[in-house]
Amino acid sequence: MTTDFSTPQRQNFRGILVIFLMDLAKRIKQNIYAFLPLLSSNIRENYWQFIVIGLVLLLILQLLYSYKSYLNFKFHIENDRFFLRHGVFKFTDVDIAFDRIQNININQNLIQQMLNVVGFEIETAGQGKAEITIKALSREDAVELKRILLKHKADQVKGDEKTKSASSQSVKPETLFHLNLKRLLKVGISSNYLKGLGLVFAFFATLYQYIEDILSNFYDVDVDETYLNQIPETVGYVAGFIIFIITAAFLVTIATSVIKYFELKITKSNNEFEVDYGLFKRVNQVIKKNKTQVFEIEQNPIKDFFGIKNIFISQASSEELNKKKKIGIVGVTDDEIKIMFQSLFNLPFDQNFVVVKSSKRLMIRLMLRYSILSIGIGLGLFFWQNLVVSIIVFSILTAIFSYVAFKTVKKSHVGVNESLMKINSGSIHTNMKYIGTHKIQSLALKRNWFQQHNQHADLIIYTASGSERVSYLKYNEALKMINYLNYKVESSQLSWI
Amino acid sequence: MLDFQNQTLNISHLPRFENVKGYPVDKAYLKVLRILYAFWALFIFSGLFLLDFFVGLPALAFYPILGFVVVLFSLIILDIELGFHRRQFGIRDKDLIFQKGFFVFRQTIVPYKRIQHVEVKQGLVFKAFKIYTLKVYTAGSSTGDLSIAGLNHNDADKLKAQILKVADLDDN
C-alpha cells in the first residue's frame, strides 16, 4: 500500500489515541502539583464526588481537543515543498522547502510502540522553532515520506560528487558499533549518581507527606516529635535510611542508563552515522558530518577502570541545546572513538594543541560559590539539629568541595591548533570538547570587576549548538587566543554547516 | 605561555581586536537609560510604599525587601553611569566588535560572515530621542548575538549597510 502524499493527508487513524494519550501524559506532567492535595485523606473523603466529576470532565475535554487536533492536522507535498496545516482554535500553516530540511528523525515511544505507529520529526536550521513533529504515521508511510523529503538532498550530493556517491551508494550501511548488555551495565555503574540521587530525593520529597500520613495512621504518633525526642535510636534509623537512599540512587542510575541506551547501535552510511537506542522509546538519530558542532568525550575514574568512554555529539540546532539534545554514544572504546573522530573531522585523533590553562584564581571563585552552598546547609542543620552536627557536615562538605574545586582548576584548559580547538573541563570526571575552529559563530571576552583589576578574563565561544566557556585565563593569553580563533574563523573558507 | 611556533603564521602579526578604535554610542542613549531607571525606581518604590501603607507589611519583610531593592538599583545606576563611556562599537573589514559594562565588562566579536540577519529597531522612548537599536543574529545561541543599543540614525544605517555589503546573507 502506498500513500499519495500530494493530497492533504491526516495522520494514521490510530493517531487519535496516540495524540490523546501523549497530550494526556503531557498535561499530567505539567500539572502534577495539582494532584498533591489528593494525597491528603481528608480532601479525598470530603470531596471525592467533585474530584471524580472534575477529572471526567477534563478527560472528555481533552479527548475532544485531541480529536479536533487530529482532524485539523493535515500535511502534503507539492512542488518540492512540505506543507502542514495544524491547530485547534487557530490554524498554523507551515511550509518548508525540501532543501531547508536538515534532518529527519523517526522514533517510537512506548505509546507509539503499543499502537504500532512511529513519530516523525523534521528538523530545519532556521531561526526559532521551525521543527515539525508528526505524532503518528505507519512505519511504511514514515519511511516513504523520509525518502521523498531527503531525495532532493541525495540528488544534490550526487550532482556534487558523482563518482563518490555512486560508489558509496552501492555500499550497504555497515554497523560500526553495537553496545551489548554487559558494556551497558558498565556504563550504568560508571555514571554520575547525583542525578539518580536527585530523582530518589524528589520522589521521596513528594511522597513524604503521604508516608507520614500512613505511618501516623499505623502507630498513632507524630513522626516529627518522636524523631526529635529519641535521637540516639534514630541515628541507626538515619544510617539505614542513608544506605537505602544510596542503594536506590545506584539502582535508579543504572536502570535509567540501561533504559535510555538499550541496544545502542551505530551504522555508517555515506558520510553520516545513524544512531539507534532506547528500550521503551526507540530513538533514531542521524549524525551528519557538516552539522556536527561539538564532539565531546567524557571519562571518569570508574570508566577508565572499565576501559570505556562516553561521546556526546552536538549538532547545529535552532533551539538552545540541553543535555537531552546531545546525541550520546556511551560505552565506546578508544579505537571506536578514533574511528568516529576521524570520519567526523577528517583528521587523525592524535592532535597537538597549544594549551592555555585557567589561572589558580579560578579556585577562589569556585570556593566562594561552594561556600555559599555549604554555609547554607550548615546553617540549616544548625537550626534543625545542633551545632555539632552542623560543624561536622560543614567541614566534610568544605573538604569535598575544596578537592572538587582543586581538580576543576587543574583540568580547566583550552587548546588550539591549525584546525581544531579543544576545551578541557571537569572535576572528578574529565570532559574534552573538540570544536572545528570554522564552526565558531562569535566570540566574547568577559571580565568581572575583580578580573578587570587582576588581569584575567573568561573566554566564551559561541557555536550553533550553544556556548562554551573557559574561565579565568590570563588576560594577555586570552587576547592572543581570541585573536587567533577570530583569525581562523574569518580566514577559513569552510562553512559552519 | 602561548607559543605558536612551528606555524607558518606568526601570532604577533595577527590583527588585534583590542587595538581597534571604538566609537561611542549616542549621548542621547544615556538620557534614555536615565529616564528608564528613574521610571522603574519610581514605580517600584512607590509600589512598595503604597503596599506598606495600605496592606501593612511586617517590618521583618518590608526592610529586607527595601534594602534589597535599594542595593539593586544603586548597582544598576552605577553600572549605567560609570559604564556608559565603555559602550563602544568597532568596525573592521571582517567583523563587528561591541563592548560594554562596568561591573562585568564584556567584549564580543561577531564575524560578518557568520551573521544570519540584521535588524534595526526603535522602541517607544528611543523614538523620542531619535536613536535606534541594531540587532545582529548569528546561528549561535542567543547570548552570542549582538545588540547595540543607542545608535543615532547615521551610525545605525552605516553599520547595517556595512554588514549587508560584506556578510553573505540569505535574501529573506
TrEMBL record, chain A:
Pfam families: bPH_2 (PF03703). It comes from the Bacteria. The chain crosses the membrane at residues 47-67, 192-211, 237-259, 366-383, 389-406. PANTHER family: UPF0699 TRANSMEMBRANE PROTEIN YDBS (PTHR34473), UPF0699 TRANSMEMBRANE PROTEIN YDBT (PTHR34473:SF2). Keywords: Membrane, Transmembrane, Transmembrane helix. This is YdbS-like PH domain-containing protein. Residues 70-148, 264-319, 422-484 form the YdbS-like PH domain.
Automatic annotation (TrEMBL), chain B:
It comes from Mesohalobacter halotolerans. Keywords: Membrane, Transmembrane, Transmembrane helix. Residues 88-163 form the YdbS-like PH domain. PANTHER family: UPF0699 TRANSMEMBRANE PROTEIN YDBS (PTHR34473), UPF0699 TRANSMEMBRANE PROTEIN YDBT (PTHR34473:SF2). The chain crosses the membrane at residues 35-55, 61-84. InterPro entries: YdbS-like_PH. This is YdbS-like PH domain-containing protein. It comes from the Bacteria. The keyword Transmembrane applies.
